UniProtKB/TrEMBL annotation:
Gene for this chain: tmk
Keywords: Kinase, Transferase
Enzyme class of the recorded protein, top EC level: transferase
Protein name per UniProt: dTMP kinase
Source superkingdom: Bacteria
EC number: 2.7.4.9
Amino acid sequence: MSAAPRGRFISLEGIDGAGKSSHLGAISRWLQDQGEDVVQTREPGGTPLAETLRDLLLNREMDGLTEALLVFAGRRDHWRTRIAPALAQGRCVVSDRFADATFAYQGAGRGFDWSALQTLESWVLDGGPGPDLTLWFDVDPATAARRRAAARASDRLEALDEAFFARVRDGYARRAAENPQRVVRIDAGQPLDGVGTQVLQALQAWWPGRAR
Ligand SMILES: Nc1ncnc2c1ncn2[C@@H]1O[C@H](COP(=O)(O)OP(=O)(O)O)[C@@H](O)[C@H]1O
Ligand SMILES: Cc1cn([C@H]2C[C@H](O)[C@@H](COP(=O)(O)OP(=O)(O)O)O2)c(=O)[nH]c1=O
């Protein structure tokens, strides 16, 4: 009996308040409509251990290096015990954030060394590929701040100023430029339905081209 073909891995990225979580359910439903068995998850978190580390990250003061090591520790557990086994079974994984967030927040935002993050990323993923497709919800920091203020109280990272989120946005732009075949930019400054249309178009454009 031959092994199941590797499943597909999709990540959603963007600064806090960009609107990515609002589209998670529709993305999973679209994949299910294509006949996929979908695992929906998130980072930081996704496993009991990584959720414990998430709680520390969001609520305790620490420097950028400590943040990077914590999120990669959580990602290692998430990758090894949940994502990689699901992909090996041919399931489709959709994660609200993945490694690009570390480059954007701890790299560009906090100033932690980009190439050191690339080394950590390679170790944590056993040198293998990460997401097949990343939808980058790109919006200006002022719009994202207004959305966050209307929606919820801020956690430790969300309370950082607009200059921080401008650097994080630049970090996502750098990752997109470095990975043009994987990262699709969504104009998340549009109204909700316009963003939803772009998301579906991006999925449709990518889907038939995937080699299994
Ligand atoms: N395109 C949009 N236009 C206006 N408000 C939006 C849009 N997308 C999301 N929102 C609202 O902004 C807030 C943050 O959205 P959310 O999806 O939680 O963002 P994220 O997951 O990127 O932090 C929510 O109240 C949501 O309803
Ligand atoms: C995955 C990841 C997230 N983060 C930050 C981004 C967010 O501010 C925070 C929590 O992410 P998230 O769960 O997306 O926040 P929310 O649901 O409140 O929008 O963690 C990092 O700093 N580094 C990382 O590697």
